[in-house]
Amino acid sequence: MLKRTAYDRLLEWKSRSQGSSALLIKGARRVGKSFLIKDFAQREYKSHIFIDFGHVPKQVLDLFEHETDDFELFFAKLSSFCKVKLYRRESLIVFDEVQLYPRARQLIKYLVADGRFDYIESGSLISLRQNTKDILIPSEEESIEMYPLTFEEYLWADGDEVTYPLIKSCFEKKVPLGPALHRKVLNRFREYMLVGGMPQAVNAFMEAKDFAKADRAKREILNLYRNDVTKFAKGVKARVLAVFDKIPAQLSKKEKRYKFSMLGSNARYRSYENAFVWLNEAMIVNSCFNATDPRVGLALSADVSTQKCYMADTGLLVTQTFMDKSYTSNELYRAILFDKLDVNEGMIMENVVAQMLRSSGHNLYFYSRSDSANKKNNMEIDFLVKKMVGLKEKICPMEVKSGSYKQHVSLDKFWGKFKKDLSTPYILYTKDLEVRKSDYGPIVHLPLYMAGLL
């Protein structure tokens, strides 16, 4: 059983809520929601009932359809059918894949008010209109989002619970790990980029440190996602698949903004907007929007028609890039392992930074400006992250670079234009932590594996 940081959030909810709210866990398919909930239920409750609405017996559905006007009878029959004794305030009832039966989600309001048991819901595609149509979303429902394994969780999966606290300590003190330890951690991080954070792939790799087994697991997940699009992306199936299939090609360009011309000569954002919404709601991708004027706020100035579309899991991106070839033909594995990434393959580094920032709770924004009349005004900052400095909100600009980069021209221009609204600038790269001086103050250079601490 993989250890997840989300477990602590479930513990906090149970302790604080005391039955006054249900918890909804949202996440992409195969991200580990069901395993986490089962582990939590077994450890923290006297008994539990797990109802999977993807494979629910007709007798249980009949209870939801005809018996919910009398909870005494409803719970007695549910307990009898599942052969599980329920204990007041000591039992948990789980609605898994609840998006497949919205009526159960609406019932949460009354189940929480009844007060006998605790309730956890989980699912993917939770917010799609077709999965919330004609139901009232209960105010008694709290929600959290679950993502692929972080680098810290990846190390835990390999039995290492000492390295990441040291990484965190060095980050907080702004001191390097030192050559030997940095090299060791970076090698583990390269593994993490290749394997990714999907539990099925991580487990497959950890059995024998076999990338081929992890690749097979990832191909299965990618095929599952495509099947989900076919089944659930009503009215936009072809466009969702077109956007999804082009993600590696889009990210491999020097400018990683999604170019609709690659989808067709007449393709426009408004024609594909619902496809991007579907992929984001499914939590398959992480969209990063262009904040055209950071002075007025990132969200307020976001241009949703100008976006970068990252895969939510970098390991899946590595496999998707060579989906039509065998694992042995996947050149990215060798390039990453031996630190031979070229400019285009740097998409993997940007993608993993986006993944780590998103897992840390950040919405994703970048800054891009093009001036055809004067190219000296052109600039692009890979990521912008908000940070509280005293009582004021500031923006930290971030660039993702190779270890051998020579300059940061865009960062210099950006600082000159928006310096009043900015805080610490960061360079994320493959070398050890270093704080370098610049004309406008210190620039913190962080190894990629520290991105999740920002």
Structure description:
The structure is a single chain. Helix content is 43%, strand content 19%. It has 454 residues and is an alpha/beta fold. Strands 2-3-4-1-5 form a five-stranded parallel β-sheet, sandwiched between helices. It has a five-stranded mixed β-sheet with strand order 10-11-12-14-13, with helices on one face. A four-stranded mixed β-sheet has the order 7-6-8-9. Helix 1 (6-17) crosses helix 2 (33-44), helix 9 (179-195) runs antiparallel to helix 16 (331-337) and helix 10 (199-208) packs antiparallel against helix 11 (211-232).
Strand arrangement within the widest β-sheet reads 2-3-4-1-5
The major β-sheet equals: 5 strands, parallel
Radius of gyration: 23 Å
Which structural class matches the secondary elements?
alpha/beta
Residue share in helices? 40-55%
Number of strands: 14
Please indicate the percent range of residues in DSSP E strands (runs of 2 or more). 15-25%
Mean residue pLDDT: 91
Outline of this structure?
The protein is α/β, with parallel strands linked by helices. The protein contains 18 helices and 14 strands.
Key terms:
5-stranded parallel β-sheet
Topology overview:
Elements lengths: L5 H12 L4 E6 L5 H12 L2 E6 L5 H9 L4 H12 L8 E6 L5 H13 L3 E6 L5 H4 L8 E6 L4 H7 L5 H11 L5 H17 L3 H10 L2 H22 L4 H9 L1 H5 L17 H13 L3 E7 L10 E10 L2 H8 L9 H7 L9 H13 L4 E6 L9 E3 L1 E7 L2 E9 L8 H10 L7 E4 L4 E5 L2 E7 L7
Parallel strand pairs: 1-4, 1-5, 2-3, 3-4, 6-8, 11-12, 12-14
Antiparallel strand pairs: 6-7, 8-9, 10-11, 13-14
Helix pairs in contact: 1-2, 3-4, 9-15, 9-16, 10-11, 11-12, 11-15, 12-14
